[in-house]
Amino acid sequence: MNAELIHRLHFAFTVTFHYLFPQLTMGLALLIVVLKTVALRTGSAQWDRAARFWGRIFGINFVFGVVTGIPMEFEFGTNWARFSRLSGGVIGQPLAMEGVFSFFLESAFLGLFLYGEKRLSKVMHWFSAVMVFVGSWISGFFIIVTDAWMQHPVSYAQLPNGQFEVLSFWQLLLNPWALLQYAHNMTGAVVTASFVMAATGAFYLLDGRIHDYGRIFLKVGVISGVISTILIIFPTGDLHGKYVARNQPAAMAAMEGLFKTEAGADIVLMGQPNEETGLIDNPLVVNDALSFLIYGTTKAEVKGLDQFPHDQWPTALPLLYYAYHIMAGLGTWFVLLMIVAAFLLWRGKIYTVRWMLWLLLISFPLPYIANTAGWLTAEIGRQPWLIYGLMRTSEGYSNTVSASNGLFTLLGFMGLYALLGLLFTVLVYREISRGPEPKEVTAEALHAD
Amino acid sequence: MMGFIWFWLVAVMIVGYVVLDGFDLGVGVLHLFLVRTEAERRATLGSIGPVWDGNEVWLLAGGGTLYFAFPLLYASAFSGFYLPLMIVLWLLVLRGVSLELRNHIDVGVWRALLDGVFGLASALLAIFFGAALANVLRGVPLQADGYFFLPLWTNWQPGPSPGILDWYTVIGGLVALAALTLHGALWLTIKTSGDLAQRARRIVTPLWLIVVLLTVVSLVATIVVRPQSLDNYYSYPFTFVVPVGVVASLAAAWLFNRKMQPVKAFLSSCLYLFFMLAGACWGVYPTLLPATTGSDRDITLSRAISGPHTLAVGLVWWSFGMALAVAYIVFVYSRFKGKADASGH
């Protein structure tokens, strides 16, 4: 068995599952602030209850995010010991900062937000919502800084014992890669939250039960949805893509399936990359578009994989290509859908246009897929490097942990997370079925037994 | 100097974790035995509901701090203790989810199942944390490259090729279980009222006797397993104040509980945990992870420490960030001051 592969899968599986939760909490934190702000300004009890409803869903998500997040920090040491030993002086820093600056803030104010409404003034309760938002977005930032250093190492020196050390703390935090990736990623989180909120609103309207809240959710979800889906393509995705093309040209060539260097490179919309022939099978292309997207002119030369020695090609090349195309394709669908939805909202028709409500409802899983595919693109694109250009993935995993031990715990996580996924679905299903105005009998029913 | 500072900063994070998450682990263990009605159970779990995830942050922040200050130790210990750490992670997952879930489920049988999972996971975590500390005190079979891999158990003897569990580390696990259960009982005497608080107060004495007994046994066992643990104390005799502190704080916890001063009793228990951990740290300092394969393979402070610039920068943001964190924590605890009510919140 290949230990490197097992350790990669171990991290990939646990982090992919983990990120299903924070992408919603980070986006939702912003939308809850919007709901609370409207409630505070208008004094509307309905918007307050709407915020409380999403607070409950946030709370469930948060717990699943916390319990699946703790393993991530441990795995740097358990599964990637040789990497941690050398890189701890750099990336241990943002990871520790995440705990110190964000988690304390977030957990403290979330406790107040969820449990303390009766003990706080209206303004303080609103303030706790804002602090939860700030905490969760700081948390995202430090994780992106960590990843960005692995993607694009800046401001480091290597000590005689091989350990990396930070040269400039601010350059580490303001790594251009980190800023671009942060903007793109956080917009992605807002897209997820917008779709979830809009889909919940659509569900209530289609179900015909909870009209008033359905309208609120639909309105907030579609407005934030149209803004975030545009921002995720332009400027954040566009800028990030250009930066990747300049700094990880081999990754970009593989993402686009560009085997041969071309002036006036075409963009492949669909087709299957064939590693053996070095061609795209069954391609559907737009002439010269790739050169234009990266360099702003249709004649620019784009480096293909032929420019790089084979041992620097991203491993799992087709997976990288498909992940990237799925992300980009879904991103396009999101903009189209949300623009039409926003138009209907503006005309005041959306609440009764059933085909649109259905489209919004069934589209809610898609941002999860797009966010996951985006992260797959970033991390598979980084291969075969663990720290780009400095350390190969094959040099980083724990070689004291055998492949079979790694497989054992990977299977353990898979089983446990299957159970978690089931429980999560049941919990959220219950909250959404009950709606924003749950009957108060439940508390009494509990006391009776 | 930087090494000395960071050694103790990491120790502070560990103490913070044990003192804070310690009481909710203890409550997790206790609620299985102490609670009679659903209302009492909600009050008990409500007393930790708003704070347990914040308490667990200390583990994350402490882990992160260890990672950047002593990367070699982090890499070596985490990969070497691979199997028990994975079990700890699974237990943390189960514990967090079962606590959260039970508030959303209104079928009695399922709630009972979740409560059982929560209590059992809490107990096992306390045992694992104690055993982990005992492993560090006993030492591990480090190879020349600074790595090792421990099986869960070998022959249950703390010799040159031990397992995670041997008679010594099992004692460590039991000390932790008893001490944290006591800690949780004292927390409940503050946060609950009526019958439940009475029962919590009454269970303190038997728990306390067990803790006293196990503390003595563990101290003796540590000296037997690793006689060098006393070297630092003989070199700096004033540090015998630490074991004196252990005895005094333990005595104070019992006395204050008897005199119905629950807050002081709980704080004494915090001090007891602090002195126990500080005493253990001082016993190994400046070694971070002793080798059972010869002291030239010990992972020492100077060998594991990060680069000087990393640590200097870290000190600035760490101090600033932790001051902020303490401010939030004080604020939250002050907002949730007083008894937890039966609605659970």
Which labels suit this protein?
heterodimer; A: 449 residues; mainly alpha; two-stranded antiparallel sheet; 72% helix; B: 345 residues; 13 helices; globular
Short characterization:
The complex is a heterodimer of chains A (449) and B (345). Chain A has 449 residues and is mostly helical.
**Structural class by sheet pairing and helices of chain A:** mainly alpha
- Strand order of the biggest β-sheet of chain B: 1-2
The best one-word shape of chain A is: globular
Assembly state of the chains shown: heterodimer
Ends apart, CA distance between termini of chain A: 54 Å
Global outline of chain B:
globular
* Total strands of chain B: 2
Mean pLDDT of chain B: 90
| Proportion in helices of chain B | over 70%
**How many helical stretches of chain A?**
15
Give the strand content of chain B. Answer: under 5%
Rg of chain A, alpha carbons: 23 Å
Give start-end ranges of low-pLDDT stretches of chain A.
Answer: 441-449
- What are the secondary-structure elements of chain A, in order, as H or E? HHHHHEEHHHHEEEHEHHHEEHH
Poorly predicted runs of chain B are: none
